[in-house]
Amino acid sequence: LGLLPNCKTQCFNQSSLNKFIETGKKNWHYIRQTLQDLLSADNPTLRDHPELHQKVLFKQNTVTLHLPVQISGYTDFYSSKEHATNVGTMFRDPKNALLPNWSELPVGYNGRASSVVVSGKEIVRPSGQIKLPHEERPLFSATRKLDFELETAFIVGKTTALGEPIAI
């Protein structure tokens, strides 16, 4: 409808915001500023045109939220001592749950991009081989120990080459 006149084309008619993210920081700032201006009480564009307002704004309880970006891969870090202890207890003796150098370096591993889901989605308990203490052979079953953690993410915003550092 022409409300974002200088937006790089084809940014928002996608199933994710990946194309928008690729347009770069200058465009992000432009879009943010333009949206803030359009939503300002001082701007008559939406305020004084109810038909336009109705076309571009939706009540939160009438929309379905989706993942904003398509995740191709990520690195997960043990940034919580409690979580690292819980996981370490599952795989090692609880007295040695944390490796001696845990607090000295960031412990990261390649995460499964398929495990990133939108909030509210039902999660299926993982299954695998479990060797119970009194059983001779392992059995295939849903896990009996499960650890939850808060996940926080950020998007780098640009393509990086393998091994290329990202400035904080």
- Averaged pLDDT: 85
User: Could you give the order of strands across the largest sheet?
Assistant: 1-2
Percent range for β-strand residues: 5-15%
How far from one another are the termini?
37 Å
- Find the structural class using helix and strand composition: alpha+beta
The number of E-state strands comes to 4
Major sheet characteristics:
2 strands, antiparallel
- Can you tell me the residue ranges where pLDDT is under 50 for at least 5 consecutive residues? none
Element order, helices and strands? HHHHEHEEE
Count of individual helical segments: 5
The shape, in one word, is elongated
Structural Rg = 23 Å
Helix share, percent: 25-40%
Kindly summarize this structure in a few lines.
The protein is of the alpha+beta class and 168 residues long. It is 25% helix and 10% strand.
